[in-house]
Amino acid sequence: MKVLLAGCMVFVIQIKMMNQYQASKKMVTKGGMTVRWKVEDEILIVTMIAQTSGWLAIGFNHSDQLAGTNLLMGAVEQGFYRVEDRFIVAPGNHKAMTELGARDQILHRHGKERNGETVIEFAIPLQATDDFHLSLQEGGEYFLLMAYSLEDDFEHHSIMRTSTKIKL
After folding, report:
1. Are strands 117-125 and 108-114 parallel, antiparallel or unpaired?
2. Residues in CB range of 106: below 8 A, 6 or more apart
3. 3-class SS of residue 136
4. pTM reported for the whole predicted model
5. Contact of 14 with 152, CB cutoff 8 Å
6. Could you tell me the strand order of the sheet in which 80-90 lies?
7. pLDDT tens readout for residues 124-166
């Protein structure tokens, strides 16, 4: 009986810890893509997941327009990942921040691909340091662009692109 009671207590504690962890993370799934995020110490930590072997991207903007969006793109090709900080100048025209004279603000980046699924992770500061990045605030509302492609080439068009309003 004591073993059963102890086992139940451990199970309840694990559920509480899991619920606290899930509550600290936010998530949206749309168009076959999932984006999870959490804020820790003025840093936004993001995970993007989609059933594709091509690139994944998200972007932040105050409006639902493409132009002016801070775009973060990642791909995994032959076991090597790359994640870039980009800016949408106009629909169909996005450039690396460094091409525009701005600094790449990605603090951490990682990617993996397995069984046709791509997972890209990155961390960025909430506070922007130039006009091409968007200052973000926990609890603030933003339009989140979500997209993915069948190809790893960042210039290749998306097979899925959507946007949704989120509360960071």
Report:
1. antiparallel
2. 72, 83, 84, 85, 122, 123, 124
3. coil
4. 0.83
5. no
6. 93-96, 80-90, 70-77, 56-61, 141-148, 160-167
7. 999 998 999 999 999 999 999 999 999 998 888 898 999 999 9
